[in-house]
Amino acid sequence: MAPVCGWMYEAASEHSIFEDDVVETAKMRSSFGGMRETCANYKASEGVPIRFFTMLPELVEAYYSPNMGLVTHLQYSVQREEEVDEEPDSLPPQLPPRHFTADDSKASEQPCKSLSDTYLMRLQHLDLSTIPEDHQVAIQEYFRSSVCLDAEQAQNGNPNLPGLRKLMMALCKNLNSEISHILPALEVFHRALDQQLCSGIGQVPKQIFVDSGPSISYRLEQLTKLLYSIEDKAKSSVFESVGYEGGHRKSLIPVVTFEVKQESLAIPTKMFLKVDVEGGKLYFKKSKDGPEDKYFVHNKILQLVKSQKMHAKLVIIVETEKEKILRKEFVFDDTKKREGFCQLLQQMKNKHSEKPEPDMITVFVGTWNMGNAGPPHNINSWFQCKGQGKTQDDTADHIPHDFYVIGTQEDPLGEREWAETVKGVLRNITNISFKQVAINTLWNIRIVVLAKPEHENRISHVFTDSVKTGIANTLGNKGAVGISFMFNGTSFGFVNSHLTSGSEKKLRRNQNYINILRFLNLGDKKLNPFDITHQFTHLFWLGDLNYRVEFPSTEAEYIVTKIKQQQYQELLSKDQLSMEKNEDKVFLHFDEEEITFAPTYRFERDTREKYAYTKAKATGTKYNLPSWCDRILRKSYPLVHVVCQAYGCTNDIMTSDHSPVFASFEVGVASQYVSKQDPDSAPQGGIQIMNCVATLLTKSKTKFFIEFHSSCLEKTVKTSEGENAEHPAGSIKVRFGNQVQLTPIISDPEYLLDQHILICVKSTDCDESYGEGCVALRAAQFCYTEFQITLTHHGEKTGTLTGGIQLHTSEGKPTEKLYDFIKIEKDDPVASKCKGGDPNKMSVTQAHDISNPSYMGLSYRSENVTNNGWSYSMPKWTLPNVGAGGKESKKSGYDVSTRSPTGKGSTGEDERTSEMFDNPLYGSMGKSHSRGKDQDHQQKDHLALPDAPLSSSKAADADPDRPPVPTPRNRSFTCSENKPQPPAPVNQHLSAQKKPVVPSRSEGGVAQNRPPLPIKSRPGVPEPQTPKPRDYRESSELPGKHRPPARPEVPKMGRPVK
């Protein structure tokens, strides 16, 4: 018995290792006093039930059961790790595995197949010699096919598994026959025993007689337990494989009815729009309880066009059975209702899409400093984006996000407890059991990423890391945690940080940010020259950033008064983060949605009516003025789709002195494209980059070259050395004259237009990076395009790079993206004359596609200086001209946009006069040349107010061939080598708008209604002037008041070495 007990004690101890945060103890008993005492057992201190084992094989058999921690079959085979050399640079980047699913019903095909293979493999390791052959065939057939049918039933919300029931009936066929034969006799015997015995018979002694073998009742009891256990385990496995836990696998979005108004002969009439997302139908009803005979199915709803002037107005363009295009205009009660309707329609299109992979997903991002207190019982409002600020309509409550990213600070819970809490909340709200992608914790700073079950096979390359920025950068009470992963062909990065507290420690917070950028290692290791701001298609930065409002402590009551009056603008003008960001000291090129909610710190706990802005300390009273400490920012590659649908804070979660902050994003993603063409016969695509000129803010005399990185390239490409030339104010201008030819691994436009080229300017001396940037191939979709990007290194601007790019692809037309389904239309008096719903007769200048703010259909002028880190210039004579109506195809009539980001939209007059793409992703957009003051006000839900300066008229008149001199706050310039442009189209475009121009701060009193100057002819590439440039490696050149605190010296490498 001793060896047995010793082995059992060892096994129990091993079991405790596999329980994450539960500390367990094992106790052994060995005695021959009785039957119970002869059993070996172990007991866990955290409520794990006591198990008894009379024989060693019983213990082994118990550990063979799932989730017991030691002896289980792996669901997927794991190859033994071997030491291999690093891949040579010549090999193309490895793409994550790709799984196609034709529709929603096939979404679970891969998990089901995996489940089937797992059980068939287990069956091969079991002894089947004692089982009748017909039973063997029945079990094998169930695991081979019927288990997948049961999974489909569970996916559709049916908890009964017909395949399992059929198998059990087949296995117990003879048992049922015997039970039917024996049961009548047992019932008669049972009734006879129920009769009262006569008084003369003595009492039956209460002595237990132990039979020599197990009794029939015991065997039947064991049989019953076994049947129940089989059913429970089978259901558990099937339900888990499809994400079913007591509810539907997919959230069943309820039918929602909207009351709207429709103008008929200038008389508004009440209408009702009933949205059935699950059924894929949109009903038009004249009364709420009226007939539902008039409806359009999802594939007949062609487009939604939002009115830019009337925020509650929406145009629905549908196709009838006779292929006639109808345009129906409705007015909702308010903007929120319209947005809720659009989200439901978009969810319907996505749910019933025939595309194998999604091209758009939604991401929830939340941050909360929990104040070392556990969460309240109900935190639903946080995940439903309810509270103050930009919030979602109630009709969108049941629309689940694809990803939930939750960052916490001062979190007192364990990882498992917090993850289960969040999963439970989401299960209650969405009826979906979300899968945990990753969780990462540094002391009390934590980030967790959850995803829908159907995305499990689309996620790969998951990385986590953390950086300490506490005292001496060794304590983890302050710092950051990060998670990155690939979703098909799109990379995501998420950083949750808790920066230094204290109103007066602004510079230290800036230094915390720089340290996190330098030392946080996430993403592809082949992108070592680039920091995390360039490594990911979409990067989200959240957390308690601790930036305060810079008011004197005596103004505390004044601040509280302004908050009660909901007058936040004056307070936000003194927000430290906004001021530091505007001066390019932190979060360069990051974007934040407009703040329309109250400061989230510092409240009295258990209330949100009172700010506790004083705190008694031994050194005296400390003031913590109400501030927006908790923030969510984002940065994405150029020309990608990102829209913030919600940004606010809750007002009913009061256990902490911080309020939770939420944000919801609609994000475009690229699929792991598999070319449909034969690689041998398909024409070879090409990317040509030429005329590159870099202006570097350094005095170094070294030579430089450029590296081009991308997952779409066969290998990393380097240029030859550039030619250095002195530049004003101590910077260096480097010309790279040779044309660079890049070879993509796939030449299909469907694939290439979603790709980006990362550019790194390096020195030939030590391979050190002097600046990095990114160019979108979509910019060259139609023609040769000139670009200009801001070069940055470790979060600081280090120069600019100009050049041209031309794209050669194979034949093919990109498919329309889901986010192209919603457009925004600029109202025009001409539109009211267009009756009969024929969109082909509409003036193309009355609509702009800004559903994707990255692809604004606004006019961009080469005089404008953008501050988003990049800009593109396109000669108008090279743009395709499809015609004013977009009559390429049957459905092109409903596309009222001037430019679609995927090339599907019609190209009209506005597009021909538009010279540039631009992206407000990191701040303002096409500036006041293209938008009037009232337009800006109406687009505040989508865009930040323009703040880039216009060129002064005096400067332009003095030197017409010279670009405007930018101010220090701008991050990039727009340079063009376009042929001379006639000013007529520009004026024509402006006359159509009839809107006053918003002056920027640097204009200093230029009249609002002053039209922009026409584009001048420029014989060569203008040389942008960078005022007060400095060598970013020489901090001694910094003015004293702007000089950051001393930080570790930047190593002479592309990526710092810890």
UniProtKB/TrEMBL annotation:
Biased composition, class Polar residues, residue ranges: 895-904, 969-979
Pfam families: C2_SHIP1-2_2nd, C2_SHIP1-2_first, Exo_endo_phos2
Cell compartment(s), UniProt: Cytoplasm, Cytoskeleton; Membrane
Presence of the UniProt keyword Amino-acid biosynthesis in the record: no
GO cellular component term of the entry, any: cytoskeleton
Enzyme Commission code: 3.1.3.86
Biased composition range(s): Basic and acidic residues: 931-944, 1028-1040
Sequence ranges assigned to domain Inositol polyphosphate-related phosphatase in this UniProt record: 359-675
Bilayer topology: Peripheral membrane protein
Biased composition regions of type Low complexity, renumbered to the chain: 945-955
Swiss-Prot/TrEMBL keywords: Cell adhesion, Cytoplasm, Cytoskeleton, Hydrolase, Immunity, Membrane, Phosphoprotein, SH2 domain
Protein's recorded name: phosphatidylinositol-3,4,5-trisphosphate 5-phosphatase
Gene source species: Amphiprion ocellaris
Gene: INPP5D
